[in-house]
Amino acid sequence: NLTDRQLLIWIEQKLCGAIPVANMVATFDIAGAVDHGRLEHAFQLVIRHCDALRIVIDAVDGVPQQRFVSDLAYQLDFVDVSHESDSDAAFATWKDQRSVLPLVPTERLFDSALVKISGSRFIWYLCQHHLITDAWAFGLILERTSEIYRALGAGSPPELLAWPKFEDHIAAIQASRDPSATGRGEAHRPETLATGSEPIELYGRDPATGSAWTRRRTRRLGPDRVRQLRAIVKEEGVRCMPQSTTLPVVFSALLFAYLHRVSGNGQMTVGMPTANRRSKVAKETAGLFMEVGLL
Predict the structure, then answer these.
(1) Burial of 140 per CB tally in 10 Å (0-12, 13-18, 19+)
(2) Burial environment of residue 56 by CB neighbours within 10 A (0 to 12, 13 to 18, 19 or more)
(3) Inter-residue contact 111 to 127 (CB < 8 Å)
């Protein structure tokens, strides 16, 4: 009963063994003092009302089956690195070690802690398995936890509205899979999904022989480079795109050109993540909605 995207993530994790390729980590840097007990209380209320955080997955005859547990008690860890000579470096080391700890699908698919950097600076660490979240959902959880934290601090009961359920999204997907309900079946899937791109070698090496370990590298372009990139699409002979898609289109073109240079392939397929949240309800629901479009 997993969605197609969840099943692909499940298979990827199984293929990679103990390497936690699906651990997604967000760190929220907070200026000011944070009450650990109050944050723990606020996060517990979010867990109670966001059903995606209460997903556990059991393997039944080797087939993954997700279920939503009715209640999940959680103690928020507290880590103090403020006494270290370089607290930021100490936190970075702690985060690298903590983020590779495997999440046990049959017990819980998230991990969290409050880290004290100094008396006036804290970091909330939140790790979720990709099976239950995407980047958008991280934002929803932060927003709701912050609102409840402030309400508890003001001494007023937090306003816990009926948040949309991820379980309803799963049920809608399952209903759409029924050919009798949609008039469409597996035979109607586009033929392009059954065909793959030609094998690719980067610098003469097969990428599949490498490790599944990855590290994100961030490079800031700065305002000057961004302006220059946006100016490219305004040049004569270049098709102008809407402002919101200018940079993704430019970077996609650069990526394809780069891959062609290092591989020699004339045809390639690149996946581009999409939020896949087209309705108001979807935008208010915590859980995994993102999909990957093929370019």
Answers:
(1) buried
(2) middle
(3) yes
How many Cβ atoms from other residues are within 10 Å of residue 289's Cβ? 21
Q: Could you give the CA distance from residue 25 to residue 8 in angstroms, rounded to a whole number? A: 19
Return the amino acid letter for 215: R
pLDDT digits (tens, 9 = 90+) for 125-158: 999 999 999 999 999 999 999 999 999 999 887 7
Q: How far lies 3's CA from each of 12, 14, 135, in Å?
A: 14, 16, 17
Contact 250, 229 (CB under 8 A): yes
Is the per-residue pLDDT at 237 higher than 90?
A: no
* Rounded distance between C-alpha atoms, residue 65 and residue 50, angstroms: 19
User: What is the distance between the alpha carbons of residues 197 and 85, in angstroms, rounded to a whole number?
Assistant: 51
Q: Name the nearest CA neighbour of 79 among 95, 63, 100, 103.
A: 95
- Three-class SS state of 63: strand
Tell me how far apart the alpha carbons of residues 175 and 182 are, in angstroms, rounded to a whole number.
9
148 CB contacts (<8 Å, ≥6 apart)? 41, 42, 45, 46, 158, 160
The pLDDT tens digits for 184-194 are 545 545 555 55
What's the start-to-end Cα distance of the chain, in Å? 28
Question: 3-class DSSP state for residue 108?
Answer: coil
Average pLDDT, the chain: 87
| Torsion sign (Cα): 219, 143, 277, 109 | positive
Q: Are 125 and 113 in contact (CB under 8 A)?
A: yes
